[in-house]
Amino acid sequence: xxxxxxxxxxxxxxxxCLGAVAxxxxxxxxxxxxxxxxxxxxxxxxxxxxEADLHRLCDVIGPRPAGTPAMRAALEWALGEFELAGLxxxxxxxxxxxxxxxxxxTRIEVLTxxxxxxxxxxxxxxxxxxxxxxxxxxxxGTGSGYSAARASPDLSGKVALISLDVVSSFQDLGESQRDxxxxxxxxxxxxxxxxLFISNRTNQVLYRHLHSLTGDLDPVPSAVVARDEGLRLxxxxxxxxxxxVRLHLPNRIGPAFETANAxxxxxxxxxPGEIVLIGAHLDSWDMGTGCLDNAVNAALVMxxxxxxxxxxxxxxxxxxxxxxxxxxxxxxxxxxxxTRHAGQMDDHVATFIHxxxxxxxxxxxxxxxxxxxxxxxRLLAMASPDRHLRNTAEAYYISDNVAFLLRGxxxxxxxxxxxxxxxxxxxxxxxxxNVSVGDVADTAATAAALVLGVxxxxxxxxxxxxxxxxxxxxxxxxxxxxxxxxxxWETWWP
Length: 494
Known about the structure:
The protein is of the alpha/beta class. It is about 35% helix and about 25% strand. It has helices at about 5, 20, 35-45, 50-60, 70-85, 145-150, 170-190, 225-240, 290-310, 330-340, 375-385, 400-405, 435-455, 465-475, 480-485, 490; strands spanning about 10-15, 90-95, 100, 105-110, 115-120, 120, 130-140, 160-165, 195-200, 220-225, 245-250, 250-255, 255-265, 270-280, 315-325, 350-355, 360-365, 395, 410-415. Strand 14 (about 270-280), helix 9 (about 290-310) and strand 15 form a beta-alpha-beta unit. Helix 3 crosses helix 9 (about 290-310), helix 3 packs antiparallel against helix 13 and helix 11 crosses helix 13. The chain is elongated.
C-alpha cells in the first residue's frame, strides 16, 4: 500500500472488489436501440446550447462558493433550464454546511532582510489572523520532507515555510495535497503561529485547497505564496539570512448555512421506480471562474438532459439529473442526497459522476468493481462506436461518487484526459478559455448514450453491495484507517 493511498484524499486509489461479486455478469439483451443511440448522439453533439450554458456559468455567474449569491444564481439557472427542457419535478433539496468561510484581503509582507510584498492567498478554512502578525520565518521542509516540523524545538511562535514540489500530473496534485496536509498537522504539533506554502505551480499561479474534509477550521492559519516570490524567501533562508514577515489574513468565519442540490427527472416508461443518476457538482472555489471545476460538467449534465428530451427517446428506467452543492467543502451535496434518499438506494441502478475537467473522455471507472466491467465495456462500445474508449476498475476517491460507493450502489466516475487540468485546478487560471466546447459535446454525447443504455437494459448492470460487503472491502484496502486519518469516518460511514 503506497503512502499516497494511506494519507492522500485526492489521487486515484486502486480498489480491488470482493471476490463474492467479481464474477457477476448480466445479459445485455435489450440495451438501447442502436437507432435511438445514433439519434441521441447526433442531438447531443450540437453545442450551441452547451456553449451558452458555459458562458452563463463561467463568465456571467462566475465563481460559485456554496452559500454565495453566485451559487444561488447557479441553482436558479439549473431549475430554469430543467423546466425549459421539460423535465419532471425540477426542485431543490437542502444541503447543510457546518460553517461559512470567506477570504479577506490577504496581505503578506517581508520586513527583513529587505522589505517587499508577496502575492498570496489564504488556504481554505484557514483561521483568521485579524491583527497583523509579525514573526520570524523558519524553513521547515521542501517537497515531502517535513520531519523537521516534528523534531525541531524552536518553532514555537514562528512562521513555518514549506516548499511544495511543482505539479505536472494528476497524481502530482494528489501527492502535493497529501504533503500539505501532513505538513499542517506537523506544524500544529510544533506550535507555530502560521504556515506559508510555496505554490506548487509556476507563473504566479495561486490556488485554494482544503487540508481536511471535516468542515472544521484548520488548527493553524496558512496561506499559499506565489512560487517565484516564495523561492526568493527560500534562498534567503538557505543563505542564513534572518527573515521576518508580517501576515494579515482577515478571513471571515460565519455560522452554519444551507445550500442545495438541483434535481430533476425524465420518468421511465416501463420501470419508473428504478433510477439511473447522472450528476456533477455545481459549486466551486472562488478563484478563477470555477469553469473546469466544475461548471463544465454541470453544463454537461444539463446538456445530456436536454438532449435526451429533444431526441424523443423515452428510457425504460427513470433518468435522474442532479447538480450537487457543497462538494468543495467536503462532498456535502452528495452525502445529503444519499441521506435524504437512503430508503431508495436499492432503487438506484447506477450513478454516473462527472468531475475531472473538460479534457477528452478516456472512459469510466467502476470504483473498484471488476464485476461491472464486462457490461460497462459493451455499453460504452455501443455508446461511442467511433472512438476507442477504455474503462477501468481503478477507483477515483475524489468526488461525489464516494457517497454512493460507500452505500454499495454501482457508481461510475468519468475519467478524462487531465493534461490541461493540472495547472488551472482550483486556481485563478480556471477560466472558460481552457475549455474546448467540442470535446465537452463529444463527452456529453457518449454520456447520454451510456446512461440510456443502462436505463434500457433488461437487467441491472450489477448488484448493490450490502453494508457488510462494503465494510469488508474498505477494511481490506485499508480505507477505514484512511477515512479515520481524515477525521471523517464517523460522519461518512452510512
